[in-house]
Amino acid sequence: EAAAQPAARTRLPLGAAVRDDPLEKEADYRDAIIRHCSQIVGEGGLKWYDLRPSRERFVYDRPDRQLAFATANGMTLRGHTLVWYGAMPDWTKSISSAAEAEREMVGHIEQVMGRYRGRIKSWDVVNEAIPDEPASRSDIRPSIWQQRLGESHIALALRTAARVDPQAQLVINEYDIEFVGPRFRRKREAFLRLLRDLKLRNVPLHAVGLQGHLRAEIPIDKEGLSAFIAECQTMGLQVLVTELDVVDEKLPGPPEVRDILAASRVYDFLDAVRAGSPIDSILTWGITDRYTWVPLYFKRADGLENRPLPLDRDYRPKPMLRVIEHFLRDR
Ligand code: G3I
């Protein structure tokens, strides 16, 4: 059966976010990644607070190890992330002027992308720029960059990235744009406004990353999502699924039943994405229910474990994996 082939060999563009601890210490974890993935991304390691404990010091151990693992196993590593409001070290709070912000942001992109030039070929240059409840179409999420430089920090980041590594795929990554409801429609509209604006001004940008942290209790807006994706394609943007999982805090039923419901959400999501444009690649935010961010923020009230990912805690494939593989084979 083809599903048993390592993805790196069959070249299914399937990937997962990796954690450094199990990657180092657990053979079963490593085997699962090697078997199923042709690309990985660090769940952490390239974030500001991981790389820059102080202004002067850059700590590359974790991404270096992730890259070595990827290379040794015929996979690629994605870069996550250069400009984000989150995961910032405390010292960045003291950035107090536009000139200083520009120097820090540009310098960071030069250092980090420069170090991995030609080796990390796809970057989430800008992550989560749109607020959860945009007040208007031109609302941008607060961050030190937005505070000091305004919206122009986004174009500056992308232009800098293109200069540092002209071959790299430059991505804007976003969440919560796939669901039914006015709040999510407004987020899609604000996101589209930003993308159109960047394209109009010839800012280098190659792809949109849909994180895809799906919610078990919120249906996918299939029409709205397909229309959004089709519009991205019109602008010449590729579409990547970058952080897929299903937040199952409120999903009822026994584990086997929940797994099927979660897989059907993934089906709806990928089906709507594909209706708008071909799916380039799919990365999940973790590979096994054993290691996932979900219980950190969305622990179940019934004491049962969260099951957001394609493999269970014993690395057995769940229906979600079959759904993802189906869409990747059938692009
Ligand atoms: O490493 C320490 C550990 O030593 C300690 O025992 C533990 C106690 O809480 O904390 C551990 O660090 C946590 C780390 O995750 C472990 O993986 C951090 O506190 C926690 O803040 C960190 O959260 C990460 C979060 O981003 C913030 O950086 C999640 O792992 C990571 O999955 C999550 O990923 C984000 C993407 O970057 C962007 N999109 C949404 C996605 C999910 O929230």
TrEMBL record:
Residue span, GH10 domain: 2-327
Catalysed reaction, written as an equation: Endohydrolysis of (1->4)-beta-D-xylosidic linkages in xylans
Source species: Phreatobacter oligotrophus
Name of the protein described by the UniProt record: Beta-xylanase
UniProt keyword terms in alphabetical order: Carbohydrate metabolism, Glycosidase, Hydrolase, Polysaccharide degradation, Signal, Xylan degradation
Family, similarity comment: Belongs to the glycosyl hydrolase 10 (cellulase F) family.
GO biological process, one term: xylan catabolic process
InterPro entries membership: GH (IPR017853), GH10 (IPR044846), GH10_dom (IPR001000)
Gene3D superfamilies registered for this protein in UniProt: Glycosidases
GO terms of molecular function: endo-1,4-beta-xylanase activity
